[in-house]
Amino acid sequence: MRVMLPSIERPHKLPVVLSRSEVKQLLKTPKLLKHRLVLAMLYGCGLRCFELRNLQLKDLDFDRKMLHIRQGKGRKDRYVPLSQMQARGLKKYITADPPTIWCFNGNDREGNPAQLSAMGVQWIVREARKHSGIQKEITTHSLRHSYATHLLEMGLDIISVKDLLGHADIQTTLTYLHVAQLGRQKPFSPLDRLYTE
Question: Parallel, antiparallel, or unpaired: how do β-strands 78-81 and 66-69 relate?
Fold first, then answer.
């Protein structure tokens, strides 16, 4: 029995992906725990901006270390794993600055607690990039791209990555095969070996 793999159409523009050390640098940059957690959730769970903003306290399952993403893109629910580090940080944050409904509160025009705005999330990412010294253009979606790419590089299969990202079509996920450093041998520059052999 032969298995036919779908042809991968090369995307016109490849996503910006951070290295693992750049992600660590970005995550430790903000002074506020809330801001570090926003970045950790975007990267560590591969969340879209609106999914992060819609997170409610009831979506956190610390016992199972899972995050319930309700009504993601295409109005589909999904579960993604929460890391031990995220769970610890979220518990600390919730104890110190208890949100009521939303995991991450912002303020409305009158200064009352409200759902964190998209501009608020983008500001957190922009400020972290600015103060981290990272030169790459980083958006909220860059952290999602980095999540997918790093999972593939760490050995997770493409179908699992598709499900974690909540993609309806595998073609969308296949884009990450162009940026992930996979294969029997990691790609290298010939300059690396020119003077060593």
Answer: antiparallel
Question: 128-185, pLDDT tens digit by residue?
Answer: 999 999 999 999 999 999 999 999 999 889 999 999 999 888 888 888 888 887 765 6
Query: Which two structure tokens, joined as six digits, stand for 98?
Result: 């208890």
The pTM (predicted TM-score) of the whole model is: 0.84
Phi, then psi, of 167 in degrees rounded to 5: -75, 140
CA atoms within 13 A on the CB side of 72: 21
**Catalytic site residues?**
48, 73, 141, 144, 167, 176
- At the fourth CATH level, the homologous superfamily of domain 20-178 is Intergrase catalytic core (1.10.443.10)
Q: How many CB atoms lie within 10 A of CB 145?
A: 22
Please list, in sequence order, all residues whose beta carbon lies within 8 angstroms of the beta carbon of residue 130, skipping any fewer than 6 positions away: none
d(CA 113, CA 43): 25
CA 152, 51, 149: angle at the middle one, nearest 5? 15
Where exactly are the structural domains of the chain?
20-178
- How far is it, in rounded angstroms, from Cα 81 to Cα 68? 9
- Stretches where the chain sits below pLDDT 70 are 1-12, 72-74, 111, 183-189, 191, 194-195, 197
